[in-house]
Amino acid sequence: MKLPFAFLLAAAIWAKAPTVRITIAGGGLTNSIEVTDPQLLSISHAWGSEFLDASRDPLAEAPEVKLRYEISFHSQIDLNDVRKTCVIYYSPNPSGQGFIYLPGKGTGWYLNAGTIIRQGRDGKWSYASPAWEALIKAAIARGSVLSGSAPPEVVIDEWTKPQAGWLYVLDPRSESDHPGSRVWLVDPETAKVMGSVHAGYDPDFALSPDGRWLYILSGERDSGELSVVDTVDGKARRVAFSDRVLYQPWYQGLPPYSRMAVSPDGISLWILDVFTPDKIGNQLRVFDTRSGCFLPDALTTNDAVATNNVQFVAWDAAIIARLPRPGSCGVADGFMLPGGRTLAIVRTDGAIYQMDTITREFHPTAITGNCTRSESGLVFRFPWPRSADGGTVYLGYGPPEPDGMATSHEFRVIDTTAWKALRSIRTSTSFWSAVASRDGAMIYAPAPRDHSVLVIDTAARQEKHALRVGQTPALALVAP
User: Fold this and answer.
1) For residue 72, with 0-12 CB atoms within 10 Å meaning exposed, 13-18 middle and 19 or more buried, which class applies?
2) Which of 77, 227, 328, 332 sits CB 3.0–4.6 Å from 379 for a disulfide?
């Protein structure tokens, strides 16, 4: 397996990251338990092997086990950046040393491979080291007493019924003392926080068209879960994924965009990339908002996220159209033009094509780019904001910052009727993403490095001010 240099460099840096938290699930526990015992954490390094008995070879055959605990290591990558970096399975052995299974391909390997590949042990059972096993057994014994009363994952702080135009801001690294995430409710006119939701790790969110329901997906527990928040009174209801064995975060660092959306009629919530160990690829899960349950079957499609294809997905077929592209340019954004037949597709170099969704034919517009290696990543893969009538699109223009905290430093304003570039909007600082108000009068651009959300007046085409919000605001939604 060949890995990019940047990935190898990041992995080398992260290898020094300490384990700050362990979660234990399964094995008969009613709820997941959390362990922060320093002695156990010190020998539970995601990049280490102290939890394995290195003096003994892996087992040739899988042992017969009665209990299996899923144990997740969470590492402190950076300030306010704690990530699940490794998952193992532990089974006690009544007659001797317990066993540890390191997931192989198809069983969570896609998470552990991003941390370290243990040649000869991945996909096999090994013996647990005696020192580690003694500590983990004690932790399980203590946690078993309390697991039946574990607190809910999503906790609502003080809450005010949202008004039209208020912002929901997703902050994946909100807590400095206890790493986690929040969704902040903010009044942009007064710059006041009107409520917040403590969510789990690797969160995502979506809002119903009428603004009544806020959906939050996170992976705090062993299988991840969906929380449905009533925005009127701020009460939340948890919905578990009954058939998920391992939750796989779909992003590292800051979320590049949301992979959740609610149908225009509000009946269905669509969640893309819900992983299970036996199905690795793009899966579309549908939550019926009326019954409050997931539909029994998920649609699995080929992995086309990193390609240059436009993919239309239906329950009985997947139609793929290949985008004309020279060099290394890919698809950055796509949106329907007025009339509902033509899809505008933005390449990562800023060039824009039109696609007839019936004939699947592509036609270039007057907005061109320079698809060379140095120019191919100037428009990040985001759903960039548009005006209310769809006649104007505001493309964040980069390149992304090396620290991964910003994608753009200006908005390039494009007239989608005449296909011409209008005056650009420079911002006071680099930003990560952007969303437009419902009337298109304002653009809100989260700037995680500056702990703020930039407010841009689209009529004046200039930045008005910045709202101080949380630690690392990344995505925003606007209340209708």
Assistant:
1) buried
2) 332
